[in-house]
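Following up on my earlier thread - several people asked me to post the actual chain instead of describing it. Fair enough. Here it is, all 208 residues.
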Amino acid sequence: MRKINWKVLAITCVITLLPILFGLSVWNQLPEQIAIHFDVNNQPDNFAPKAFAVFGLPLIMVAFQVFCCLMTDFGVQRYSGNKKMEQLSKWVIPVVTVVLYFVTVGYSMGWAIDIRRVAVCIVGILFVALGNYLPKLSYVKHYNFEPEVAKKINRFTGFYMVIMGALGLLSILLPAEASVVWLILLIPFGVASAVYAIYVSRKHQKRS
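Reply from S.P.:
Thanks for posting it. Predicted structure:
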């Protein structure tokens, strides 16, 4: 029987929605159009109505959080995965939502915020954290790899996630172009992980 951790689901959803209270408290100070996307030079290039920014974004994120928690719980029961990794994955959306909500609303109120550095910092920390736990998993979700193969894939991917996360964090100390280069490097990183997974899987099949 599939068991859902309703307590964690409820707590993380409440935390994801909590920033709305801050939005309401500063409602009269907010412009009618709020910047919700920025280019690498910290310039807004997409706007949304105030109501959508204050209420809509957290509601959308809480929907993603429900989906994430349900899929994670089902995955744990199916694969008996690493508990710390599963717990970490359930807190990604709430933490990211809270940080980005305050950044978005604060920027619209005139706070001096470097959006590029905040965004890259969040992604870099996530890469380091997830990359650290990934090698401890003995499976790859949604793919029926043998445990031995899954461990090799996760070890390879986790190692390079930590490296990419560290490079991302380093880029926030440099001009904006450094973050652009880092983003471009994420493409070959993804390709390399996929190619390695195929290579290891085929090699294991030949041995079998």
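Residues 114-208 form one domain. That should answer part of your original question.
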